[in-house]
Amino acid sequence: MDFDLNESQSLLQDSIRKTLTAKYGFENRKAYMASETGWSREMWAQYAELGLLGLPFAEEDGGFGGGPEETMLVAEQMGRHITLEPWFSTVVLGGGFLRHGAETALRQEMVEGVAAGETLLAFAQTERQSRYDLFDVQTTAKKDGAGWVITGRKGMVLHGDTADHFFVTARVSGASRDKGGIGVFVVPATADGVSVRGFRTVDGQRAAEVDFTGARAAHVLGDPEGGLALVDRVVDEAIAVLAAEAIGAMDVVHAMTLDYMKTRQQFGRAIGSFQALQHKAADMLVAIEQSRSMAYFATVAAQASDAAERRRNMHAVKAQIGRSQRLVGQQSIQLHGGIAMTMEYAAGHYFKRLTVNEAMFGDTDHHLRALADAGGLVQAA
Amino acid sequence: MELRFTEAELNFRQEVRDFLAAECPPETRAHMIAGKSPTKAMVVEWQRKLNARGWAAPEWPVEHGGPGWTPAQKYIFREELQMWPAPSPLGFNINMCGPVIIEFGTEEQKKRFLPRMRNLDDWWCQGFSEPGAGSDLAGLKTRAVLENGEWVINGQKTWTTLAQHADWIFVLARTDPAAKKQEGISFFLVDMKTPGITVRPIITIEGGHEVNEVFFDDVRVPADQLVGEVNKGWDCAKFLLGNERFGQARVGASRERIRRLKMIAKETLDGGRPLIEDPEFRRQMTEMEIELKALEMTVMRVIANETKRAGTGKPDPATSVLKIKGTEIQQGVSELLMKAAGPYAWVDGDPDAEGSNDWDVAPDWAFGLAGIYFNWRKQSIYGGSNEIQRNIMAKAFLGL
Predict the structure, then answer these.
(1) Interatomic CA distance for residues B221 and B201, integer angstroms
(2) B residues 67-126 near A, CB within 8 Å?
(3) Which of B74, B297, B300, B337 is the best residue to mutate to test the A interface, defined by the most A CB atoms within 10 Å of its own CB?
(4) In chain A, what are the domain boundaries?
(5) CA geometry: angle at A296 spanning A294 and A301, to 5°?
(6) Rounded CA gap, A157 and A135, in Å?
(7) How far apart are CA A66 and CA A9, in angstroms?
(8) B394–chain A Cβ distance below 8 A for any pair
(9) Residues sharing a CB contact under 8 Å with residue A197, sequence separation 6 or more, in sequence order
(10) Across-strand partners of A182?
(11) Is B319 on the interface with A (CB under 8 A)?
(12) Are A352 and A330 spatial neighbours (Cβ–Cβ below 8 Å)?
């Protein structure tokens, strides 16, 4: 076991850290959010220049061959600055589908554009009835000549308003909650029958409601009726990334809270000298350290080849970090007091990101229940 | 970054398992699976088997009979023993007093005490806490006065675990009452047979005899049984307590208990169905499992950092997590075990007795679960209460 970064990982971390520290302060972020796209094209170009957008792709596909540890490092830094750009939707989710599900030709066609910052991707999955169940799909895919046409409404499509291509789950056969019969289809945003309504999420990101009305898919990834395993795989990796993002955000908001506790005076002394508050801050640290451990575990566990074991472990990751980030988010507001309730102060923005991050791809309750139903982590005697 | 065990480490794990299968007496294992503390005879027999194998003192340097393991090997060894379960090397000897003698003792003290500690020829106990000095240990009042080349100790110790088995006790006593409270304390090694020592049992709420009061009435201790320098005993105490905290995660022990819990939850019915099918119960169990997984990784991180931090004197923030989370999980699991047993948890069995369920009044697995639940409430109190841990974190890591 070795938790240290090697030289190239340290360099990668330093370069992201420097860039984001210089260009992603709280005021910068506000300006990016207020811009027309809701995030910064300039920063996106910077990420491309730093190699972040091509990082996880194989070199022969035009990427840089980074592993899950490298992606975790990027995610942690993104979390520290609660960035707004479509890195997660394009590189992690879209990129995950390309790496694990796309044939060589499609990978080579798309990876270059993604790595260069020219192609944006989004995962269209959630439906009104589906809540967090990836297999609950009513959107349909119908065979039409050599191709497929997609019909249905997808909600909460992260960065769907700027995406060039959608990876869409759609049902080829079976009933609404059947695990078989689901395919993953690639639909260009410019295809006829695609209509997109963008909006802002509570944590300042962009998302869209996307209607597919007989929209023609450009590709199907693998077996059109056996796509759920691919979705699970991509989402499990994404959960590991969300974990690392949460660590970054929790570290920052905890440090911010400690700084405030040392400077804010009440009753003639720093509020950090009160034991009742100190113990809450200590509990936050316990939660963060446990989560950091779980985030390390996640990078390994998300790569497991045994899908059932991998799912169980990722349920545990999501549930453990979910509980922690809720505690850390809520307590950081409480320990600050009124100041953190204001839009002008950064803590609330971290709290909001942590809240949305907790619920993405299933909240704590969802994953606890799923893990419990799957028999937990420890075998019976 | 390499987050998996190496091939060599996995082989070592197997070696430990093979040793346990071949050498750990089945009666000891069955006794411990039933949730009972191993008897003195069981602990001594096992410690000597470990010593014969060269594994009695995992943390000690090789020149004092340690096996020369890496931090990861020590961890694997400890966890495998807890999971089997088999008795751990006796903490008072191996993790508490032994390391203090190795760090602060004279050559003579090392030769005289260490080999006997390792083989459990002497059973040691810890004379730290006093009626007026619990969390505030440095407030201790037991006095040691030098008279004609001998130290004369007077005072009272309490919560002295397994003093009834002990041949020796290591004692913190005040040698300079005028000094600031941490600066007038010394660390003594005392033979329990010395005249003037009286041991009185304390029976805890579950009915077990684990802890004692130890009274010192003009107990005369030769000068060569003081460890380190006079009035520098607090350094020994801090060093010892630092080692203690590391062992409190007890991940393997909790995993063993959760296995047991699942077995019981399958056998016991609730609403006509196995309890394990109850969503609310299962959820509570799962919450323990996820925290335990995180704790296991936290332990790994502390281990990986241990070698690097050695000598820097800088504690690892993750270390503080081990005590708080480790005890919360153990207490939580013990509570679920009792809950799982339902009404059959109520039998008031003597936790120290052999074959307590001879009268066949409850399922065997239900026996003593309440006792463990009640007894384990101690975990968040001892070794620096969990509130003291939070104070330490606030000061040492949060800068508050």
Answers:
(1) 24
(2) 72
(3) B297
(4) 7-119, 123-226, 229-373
(5) 85
(6) 16
(7) 10
(8) yes
(9) A161, A208, A209, A210
(10) A171, A226
(11) no
(12) no
Distance of CA B165 to CAs B25, B120, B161, B201, B212, Å? 21, 11, 9, 11, 11
Domains of chain B: 7-89 (no CATH), 124-231 (2.40.110.10), 248-396 (1.20.140.10)
Compute how many other C-beta atoms are within 10 angstroms of the C-beta atom of residue B179. 12
The two structure tokens encoding residue A245: 């993002």
Predicted pLDDT at A3: 85
**Selected catalytic residue, list B23, B103, B213, B244:** B244
Q: What is the tens place of the pLDDT at every residue in A293-309?
A: 999 999 999 999 899 99
Q: Which residues of B17-50 are buried (b: 16+ CB within 10 A; e: fewer)?
A: eebbeeebeeebbebbbbbbbbbeebbbbbbebb
Q: Residues A307, A312, A313, A316: is their CA dihedral positive or negative? A: positive
| pLDDT per residue as tens digits for the range A53-102 | 999 999 999 999 999 999 999 999 999 999 999 999 999 999 999 999 99
With CA atoms as reference, report the closest residue to A231 among A296, A170, A149, A163: A170
Look at A297 and B3 and tell me if their CB atoms are within 8 Å.
yes
B115-141: average pLDDT: 95
Fold of A123-226: Butyryl-CoA Dehydrogenase, subunit A; domain 2 (2.40.110)
Q: What is the pTM (predicted TM-score) of this model?
A: 0.89
Helices (H), B271-385: 279-309, 317-341, 369-375
pLDDT higher than 60, residue B355: no
CATH 1.20.140.10 for domain A229-373, yes or no, is: yes
Structure tokens given for A263: 């400077």
Q: Which CATH class is domain A7-119?
A: mainly alpha
pLDDT the model gives residue B352: 56
B244 as an active site residue: the answer is yes
Residue A174, amino acid: G
Burial of B67 (0-12, 13-18, 19+ CB in 10 A): middle
Would you state the structure tokens that stand for residue A213, as one six-digit string?
A: 């009305």
Closest partner CB to B286 (pick from A275, A313, A376): A376
Residue B353 confidence (pLDDT): 57
CB contact under 8 A, A262 and B400: yes
Of all residues in chain B, the one with the smallest CA distance to A254 is: B398
> What residues contact residue B300 under an 8 Å CB cut-off, 6+ apart?
A1, A3, A293, B75
From the list B329, B182, B176, the residue with the least C-alpha distance to B241 is B182
pLDDT in tens, B214-253: 999 999 999 999 999 999 999 999 999 877 656 789 999 9
Nearest chain B residue (CA) to A261: B400
**For A219-228, what is each residue's pLDDT tens digit?**
999 999 999 9
**pLDDT exceeds 60 at position B356:** no
A110 is written with which tokens? 């798309």
Chain A stretch 106-145, residues whose beta carbon is closer than 8 A to a beta carbon of chain B: none
Residue A289 contacts B where some CB pair is shorter than 8 Å? yes
Output the six-digit token pair for A165: 């291509």
Of the listed ranges A216-225, B45-54, B191-200, B364-373, the one predicted with least confidence: B364-373
Instruction: Report the alpha-carbon distance of residue B232 to residue B221 in Å, rounded.
Output: 17
Measure the CA–CA gap between A375 and A364, rounded to whole angstroms.
17
Interfacial A residues in 63-92 facing B (CB < 8 Å): 69
List of chain B residues whose C-beta atoms are within 8 Å of the C-beta of residue A258: 398-400
- CA angle A366-A368-A371, nearest 5°? 105
From residue A348, how far is each of A96, A246, A354 by CA, in Å? 31, 15, 10
